[in-house]
Structures are given as structure tokens and as C-alpha cells.
Input
Amino acid sequence: MKELKHIIMVLACTLLASCMGDDYDAPNLNEPPYGNKELTETNVLTIKQLKAKYNSTIASNGMEEITEDMQIKGWVTGNDIEGNLYNQFALQDETGAIIISVAQGALYGYLPVGQEVLISLKGLKIGGNGNQGQIGGVYTNKRTGQLQVGRLNRYVWERHYKLIGSVQPGKIEPTVFDVSKISNRQYMAEHCGKLMTLKNVRLKEADGKAVFAPNDRSAEIRANAVNRTLTGISSSKMVIHTNTFADFANQPMPTGSVDITGIFTRYRDTWQILLRSANDIKPIK
Output
């Protein structure tokens, strides 16, 4: 009797395996396990075109839902790998850049610098945060009740992007910042959000001990961040903006002349340099 049961079980398993063999497709190990693989490129706008289309919304720090079926495509130039771009990454193409805000940690795990991304925009929100263009979800200001562009729900985000090709870290080189245009509003509008390098400057508060973003109140903290100034440049024009939770927040600022690379965002008429890591500052030898 036991032998008969054993034979029946073997036959059943063989039949089940045969059925699965007909209907089950093995996973494609060459495809990334993230995002919406069904997305195809249709009605792709440049980032410059997108920002121009919603210029009044961004400029007024408003928020608007994107109702048209359109897309953007670009390269990741900065992410949250060391916590300074919190729940954000910077996307850039040949025409401009914009910040994407997602309520998810460790974005760098699948959005490393040099990853090309296609984003389906319909249903997402676009707006301005200090006139900085941003794509995301809805944020309600608790003090005023105003609706603003904020972080996008990660499950919604998962349906709206597709990773393209392999990672190419050197695809986009930083643009050298033109200091002569620091007060030029058109220059700011065209370049805000980009990966840029500021050449041959000094950090004003650097003395070998002062750190980027202390949480001991030895420097002014606003919205969990500290602004550091540069010698010879007004703090109303440009600052280094560091989150107190960044991995390098308590690292001493380098003294001497340096080149600074980062994501150059804006807050109204002030340039805010967001370092991606402490390695974005290079001493001039």
C-alpha cells in the first residue's frame, strides 16, 4: 500500500512539473528587478521643455498635477548615498536638470550616479520649492495648510519609472560654474539642479576643527541643515547646504583652496551646493 502511494506521489509531481514547464517562464536575469518594465518611450520631453511648460507653477512655488501622457529621460547625477540629498535624486539631460523626490530610503541602491532613467509623468506632481523645480507627490504644510510638491509615495513611483541600460558613471561631466553669472537669473533658471563644479574657492568657516553641519548649535540649523559660506562670496548668493544627518556632517571642513562639485540647487535667489559626499571637495595642490 505504501509503495502504491509512493508511485502515485511521483506521478503527481512529474505531472505538476510538466505543467509548470509549459506555462512558467524563467526570469530574465538581464533585466533590472526594479521599476515598470512595460514603459516604452512615447512623447519624451527634454527637461528644459518640461520646466518651460510648468514655468509659472515652479516660479510661484505652486504645485500642479501632470495630466498629459508625457515622459522625460535623463541620467542620475546625485542621490542619497551619504544622506545629503534626503529622499531625493537629481536627474539631468543635455538641456537641464530637475529634482525627483521619493519617500524611500537607499535610492542609491538602484539609482546610482550614471544610471539612465525613463519617467512617465502623468499623474505625478510638479512644482517649485524655493523656485527649484521638483517632481514628486503632495506635501501639506502643517503651519499654513498649503499644498506643495513633496515626496512621492514609493509604490506609486515604482509604476512610473524604467531603468535603461547599464550604469555609466562618466556619462555626464560636471559643468564648471561661471562665477561671473552668480546673480544672473536666467543662468540660475537654466542650471539649477545640475551637477556643477565651483573652482578655486575657500570655505570661510574652515579652521581645521569646524565641521560641515554640527548638531550642537555651534552653527545655525534651519530645517535640519546648516549653510556654510565661501570666502569672497555673499551668503545671500551661494552657500554649501549640508543636512545634519549626512554621513559627513561632523567631518571637519577642509582648509585651503578647493574645487567643489555637487548638485547646484536654488532657494529663491541663492545657490545651494549639495555635496553628494565629502569626496566632492578636492584640495587644489
Q: What stands out?
A: The chain has a mean pLDDT of 91. The first helix runs from residue 2 to 23.
